[in-house]
Amino acid sequence: MSGKPYDPARDGAEMSFKDRMSYSDYLRLDRVLDAQQPLSDAHDELLFIIQHQTSELWMKLAIHEIRSAMRAIRNDDLEPAFKMLTRVARIFEQLNNAWDVLRTMTPSEYTEFRGELGQSSGFQSWQYRAIEFLAGNRNLAMLGPHTHRKDVMAALEEILAEPSLYDEALLHLARSGFDIGADAERTIWREPRAENAKVLAAWKTVYAAPGKHWMLYELAEKLVDFEDYFRRWRFNHVTTVERIIGLKRGTGGTAGVAYLRKMLEVVLFPELWNVRTQL
User: Fold this and answer.
1) How far apart are CA 137 and CA 164, in angstroms?
2) Spatial separation of the C-alpha atoms in residues 55 and 64, rounded to whole Å
3) Residue 135: HSE in the Cβ half-sphere, 13 Å Cα cutoff
4) 36 SS3 class
5) Domain-embedded: residue 80
6) Are 238 and 261 in contact (CB under 8 A)?
7) Residue numbers of the chain with a pLDDT score lower than 70
8) Which domain holds residue 212?
9) In a domain, 19, yes or no
10) Overall domain count for the chain
11) Is residue 125 part of a domain?
12) Which of 101, 141, 169, 265 has most Cβ atoms within 10 angstroms of its Cβ?
C-alpha cells in the first residue's frame, strides 16, 4: 500500500454538517438507536428487541404499500398496484430472512431474559393485526388485545369499515364484467366473507384464458405471491418459536406453538387457491 490515504473531501464530499442536515438527522437515528432498552444483562436480549422492532418497521411499510395498492385497484389503475403488491411480497421475504438471525438464539439464552417480557407478546402487535384485516382476515375476536388503546382501536375500526384488499380485487372483477354474486352486494365490510362459488367461477375464467384477461390474471398472481410469502413467514414463526421454547405457553397467554399452527390454516384469498384444483 502506497500514497496518502484517500480523502473524500478532495472529490467534493461534504465533511462539515454544523447547522446542516446530516444522514443521522434525516433518519432521526438518535431516536431510533435509543429505542433499544434491554431490561436484563442477558447478551441475547438486544437481538430479541431489534428483531421485533425492525419487524414492526417493515410491517409499517407493508401497511403503507397495501393501502396504496387498494386505492389503485379501487381506481382501476392496476399497474401501480402490481408494483406495490410485489414490494409487499418482498417485505415478507425480508421478514422471513430475519427469523434466521433470531434462530441463532438457543433456548438457554432465551430463558435468561424471558421473565422480563411480562405478558408482552407478538400476538399483541396491532400492525400485524392491521395487515390481516387489510388483507381480508377479519376475525373480530382478534380486537381483544387492543381494547385498552383507543387510538389503536380507532385505526383498526377504520380498516374494518372499508373493503379489504381482496374485496377491492373482487369489486374490480365485477367492474370488469364478471358475476361475483353476493360479493357485489356487500355493504358491511367488518364481517368475514364467505367463500363464493361465483367468484371461483370468475377466477377460473380468468385463469383459463390469461391472454384475454391479462390484467386480472396478473392481479390474481400478485395476490397469490403476497399470500405465499405471508404463509412462509407464519411457518417460519412457528418453527422458530418451537425451536426456542418448545410447546410451552406464550408469554401473552396463548397456547404458543399450538396457537401458531392454527394460524397456518388461515387462507386470505381462498378462491385464488381453490381455482388451481379446478383448472
Assistant:
1) 9
2) 14
3) 28
4) coil
5) yes
6) yes
7) 1-2, 249-256
8) 42-278
9) no
10) 1
11) yes
12) 169
Letter for the amino acid at 63?
A: I
Residue that is written with C-alpha cell 434462530 in the block: 103
Sole residue written with cell 358475476: 179
* pLDDT score, position 266: 85
d(CA 6, CA 8): 6
Cell of 88: 409487499
Q: Rounded to whole angstroms, how far apart are CA atoms 110 and 103?
A: 11
Cell of 59: 410491517
By the 8 A CB rule, do 74 and 168 touch?
Answer: yes
Number of CB atoms found within 10 A of residue 68's CB: 17
DSSP label of 132? H
Instruction: Give residue 225's identity as a one-letter amino acid code.
Output: D
Grid cell at residue 181: 354474486
Burial of 23 (0-12, 13-18, 19+ CB in 10 A): exposed
Q: Is the pTM of this model over 0.90?
A: yes
User: What type of residue is 212?
Assistant: K
Instruction: Let me know if residue 30 belongs to a domain.
Output: no
Cα–Cα distance between 170 and 54 in angstroms, integer?
Answer: 33
pLDDT, position 107: 92
The Cα 216–Cα 169 span in angstroms is: 9
User: What is the reported pLDDT for 244?
Assistant: 79
Helix, strand and coil percent figures for the chain, each rounded to 5: 65, 0, 35
Give the per-residue pLDDT at 9.
Answer: 85
Domain containing residue 219: CATH number:
1.20.58.480
Residue 233 CB contacts under 8 Å (≥ 6 apart), including other chains: 92, 95, 96, 99
